[in-house]
Design a protein that fits this description.
Blueprint (H helix, E strand, L loop, with lengths): L1 H34 L7 E7 L2 E7 L16 H14 L6 E6 L12 H18 L7 E6 L18 E7 L6
Helix pairs in contact: 1-2, 2-3
Length: 174
């Protein structure tokens, strides 16, 4: 039916426009949060993906979000995540948090890359909730170890150590 297709196309266009506005708001807010921190923040990339808006927070060569081989965040990251939580709380949609490690072989008596990535995602969850995101909006907390590198050609790169926050489009199921 032509009218049904037109209505669906219009709804999809409106949803896309809303998502673009949301990304623009988030991008400006993240710039504001990072502005006064003298480079003591993770590298931030915001992009639109099929499921919604993906915020990728990565380590860099000269800044690590967590102490080495640990789930203890550096103090600047705690504040950054709390402020980011305040911003994300104003957006709509369910949230998925994923932790990632680089491919350096790692194992201690307590951690391997799987547990490290999962526990770092859980720590991010707690910091974001403390920042104001209602806990019930977060539908999954995942750890991917080194299985989904950001820099495929260099699986040991610092940028592969990251936390990703997916803000799902409101019409996407949990």
């Amino acid at each position: 039916d032509g009218k049904l297709l037109d209505a669906k196309a219009k709804a999809e266009a409106e949803a896309k426009q809303q998502q673009e506005k949301s990304v623009a708001r988030l991008r400006e807010a993240v710039k504001t949060i990072a502005a006064g921190k003298d480079g003591k923040t993770p590298e931030v990339e915001l992009r639109t993906v099929s499921e919604g808006t993906l915020i990728s927070l990565t380590d860099s060569a000269n800044f690590a979000m967590f102490r080495s081989a640990s789930v203890v965040p550096v103090p600047q990251v705690v504040k950054f995540f709390e402020e980011l939580g305040e911003v994300i709380a104003k957006e709509t949609g369910k949230i998925v948090i994923a932790g990632h490690t680089d491919a350096r072989p790692f194992r201690s008596s307590r951690y391997d890359n799987w547990r490290l990535s999962t526990d770092r995602a859980h720590i991010a969850y707690h910091m974001l909730v403390r920042g104001g995101i209602p806990a019930e909006r977060i539908v999954r907390v995942e750890g991917h170890a080194a299985r989904r590198p950001r820099i495929v050609e260099d699986p040991k790169a610092a940028a592969n150590r990251r936390v990703e926050i997916l803000i799902r489009r409101p019409n996407k199921p949990g």
